[in-house]
Structures are given as structure tokens and as C-alpha cells.
Amino acid sequence: MTRPALRHHYTGKVRDLYEVSHDRMLMVASDRISVFDVVLPDEIPDKGRVLTGLSSFWFEQTAHLWPNHVVSADPTDLPETAGPEVAGRAMLVRATRPVRLECIARGYLFGSAWSEYSERGTVCGRALPTGLRQAEELPEPIFTSTTKAESGHDETVTDAEAAALVGADVFEQVREATLAIYRFARQHAAAQGVLLADTKLEFGHVDDQLLVIDEMLTPDSSRYWPAEQYEVGTSPPSFDKQFVRDHYLALGWDQRPPAPSLPQAVIDGTRARYVEAYELLTGESFDEWFAPE
Questions:
Q1: What angle (nearest 5°) sits at the alpha carbon of residue 263, between those of residues 260 and 267?
Q2: Domains of the chain: residue spans and CATH
Q3: Which letter, b or e, does each residue of 65-85 get, where b requires 16 or more Cβ atoms within 10 Å of its Cβ?
Q4: I need a labelling partner for 80 at 20 to 30 A (CA). Which of 87, 159, 217, 263 fits?
Q5: What is the pLDDT of residue 4?
Q6: Is the CB of residue 210 less than 8 Å from the CB of residue 199?
Q7: From its phi and psi, is residue 41 left (phi > 0), alpha (psi between -120 and 50) or beta?
Q8: What angle in degrees, to the nearest 10, is found between the helix axes of 47-61 and 168-191?
Q9: What is the pLDDT of residue 155?
Q10: Is the CB of residue 106 less than 8 Å from the CB of residue 132?
Q11: Dihedral of CA 139/200/62/160: which sign?
């Protein structure tokens, strides 16, 4: 994809940021994919458009719960210098000062939380009831957080460590917002036959106002399971990156770059899962989302 004719500000694992003005940024979602904090050598076609379309949907749906950074995802509202290729994968957003914390709401015991619980009976140092099984629904959703590393792996932190890192007031705000948004999205997803196991949110400040930023409730940042195939004690099939993670786990890859290339079947299967997630959650055909002219 040709880069927009704007000043490049930042490149992340998946997204690129460009300066539009002193208080506006263009956020472009690529088709890159990362697992275990490693960017893979292969891309997933249309992945960036799915991420932008779903984020746009959820930002609009949850704006009454917490303000966010979105100005517009409509290609006609983007600067002409952005170029036509970013249509459907770019959002004009407010420039913020990011909170250096990744905020996670968990409703089910899975992933790194299940690994820690299996060893110590805790999640991020928080004791949970005994006897829980993999993928089991938690009695109540819990909030956990990690540091936001510029490179390499994010590090899990306790609530006390997170509060010390960003300040007690900010910590309470991000915890409240993360859980409120998770509960709302979980209810919406369930009505579409999808279980939202967990999700990750990020936040930033404009002056003293705290906004949700980056992406929201996408298959990159969330774990979605088809409700009809969910079974406690298993690794449920998913609409997210777990399909790719499972491929690499089966290979025995040491999770250090460079990663082995993905087979075409995994690339195609991942694209299909992302698109299906978009259509189930929004109730709309992915073909109707903005596409480059």
C-alpha cells in the first residue's frame, strides 16, 4: 500500500499514524498481523479494513459509555493527501497523550490468565476460586493490565503496580471504562451468538479528558468464540488470532523473530474468520464497508 502524503508519526505492529494537524492524526490499519508480540512475515488480506470497520462500529455503539478519539472513518472526511488506497482502513482521530497501560477485561479464564491460574491459582496476582477449568466463565468480569512496551513483550502488572505507573485516579478511570465497555459489548455479542471472552483497550488524554483510543473490540484485541461451539475445558474455536497462534504452537516455534511463513490455508482461514466476526457483530455485509475506488 502506498503511504499517504502526510508526515509519518509512528509505526506500530499493525497501525501507522500520520500527522494531519496539531490536534488530528490519521490512523491507518494495515494487513499486518502479529502474535506473541512478533509481526509475521505474511499479511492477511482485508484485515485492516475489518479492524477499522469493527472499531468504527464499536466506537459509535459505546460513545455513551465513554468518549473516544474518533473524528470520522468516512473516506470523504479524510484529507485528500491521504490518498484513495486508505479508504475503509483509515480513521481521522484526535491526537492524544497515550496512557502507557494496556487495559484488559476478562470474562472467561483463558490464554495467559489460564496459564497463571493453572500454576498458582491466581490471575495477575489476584486469587480466584479453586477448581475453575480452561475457558470457564468467571463469577464476575475482572480487570487486568500490562505495560505497553515499545518493542518486545508487554509485562503483566498488578493493580497496585499499574496505579503507581499511571496514577491512582487514572487507573480507576481506565478500570471503570474497560469493564463498562466489556459488559456492554459482551451483551451485544451474545445476542448475535458470539461470546466475548476478553478484550484489550487503550486510552489517551486530551487535556484532562480521558478517551478510548487505538482500536476497539476487534479480532486483534479481543477473543471471540461462536456460542454454539463453546465448551468448558477446551480451547474453543475463535474468530480472532487464536487460529494463527494455534498454528505456531503446533509448529513448536520459539516465539522469537523471525517467524516462519504462514501457509496459504491459514491466511485464507484467518481472513474468513475476521470477516465473519465483522458480519456477525455488525449485522452488515463486509462488502458494504468502504473499499478503495
A1: 110
A2: 98-108+136-251 (3.30.470.20)
A3: ebbbbbbebebeebbeebbee
A4: 217
A5: 87
A6: no
A7: alpha
A8: 100
A9: 85
A10: no
A11: positive
- pLDDT at residue 291, rounded to an integer: 82
Stretches in the chain below the pLDDT threshold 70: 149-153, 293
Task: Look at residue 106 in the predicted model and tell me its pLDDT.
Answer: 98
Question: Quick one: pLDDT at residue 9?
Answer: 93
Q: What is the pLDDT, as a whole number, of residue 109?
A: 98
Q: Could you tell me if 8 and 16 are in contact, meaning their C-beta atoms sit under 8 angstroms apart? A: yes
Cell 493493580 appears where? 159
Closest residue by Cα to residue 109 from 101, 119, 95 = 119
Instruction: Quote the CA–CA distance of 205 and 213 in Å, as a whole number.
Output: 9
What's the burial of 87, exposed, middle or buried (CB within 10 Å: 0-12/13-18/19+)? buried
Rounded Cα distance, 12 and 27, in Å = 11
Q: Which helix (H) or strand (E) holds 194?
A: strand 194-206
Query: For residue 11, what are the contacts with CB-CB under 8 A and spacing of at least 6?
Result: 17
Q: For position 292, what pLDDT does the model report? A: 79
Question: Helices (H), strands (E): how many in the chain?
Answer: 6, 16
- The CA-to-CA distance between both ends of the chain, in Å, stands at 14
Single-letter amino acid code for the residue at 14: V
DSSP 3-state assignment of 228? Answer: helix
Q: Identity (one letter) of the amino acid at 164?
A: A
Task: Return the C-alpha cell found at 219.
Answer: 479480532
